[in-house]
Design brief:
The protein contains five helices and no strands. By secondary structure, it is mainly α.
């Protein structure tokens, strides 16, 4: 869709015209661009269908980390998060502090070397 429009501009098609003469030679490339735009628009139908079905039928999230493997601090607070997530800044000992708190048994396996990670201040609940 858009690359064809670029080629049309390179070939000298002026912009912001309501219509073009067939003898200008831009008709077939405009038709290709229009077909691409229609295909792009049509490809949004399954996306919006999926959003609609998911919004209507998906179960609501009731736990803070539904997958259990969230790594960043966003997963260490409650869902939905309160206005102030933490009463004090958490101590960060790795690149994935929430995962370390939820799975301390994997710390030795990962080579971090601490047995009991703590988020000082904890999550406000």
């Amino acid at each position: 869709t858009f690359l064809v429009q670029h080629w049309l501009g390179v070939d000298g098609m002026p912009r912001r015209y309501a219509d073009y003469l067939p003898q200008d030679g831009f008709t077939w490339m405009n038709q290709v661009s229009t077909g691409g735009a229609m295909l792009l628009g049509l490809s949004m139908v399954p996306f919006f269908w999926n959003v609609w079905i998911t919004a209507r039928n998906a179960p609501k999230v009731t736990v803070d980390d539904p997958w259990g493997y969230g790594g960043s601090l966003e997963w260490a607070t409650s869902c939905p998060p309160p206005r102030h997530n933490f009463t004090s800044l958490p101590r960060i000992r790795s690149e994935r502090p929430a995962f370390d708190v939820n799975h301390p048994e994997l710390l030795e396996y990962a080579g971090h070397g601490h047995a009991e990670p703590q988020l000082t201040g904890g999550a406000a609940k």
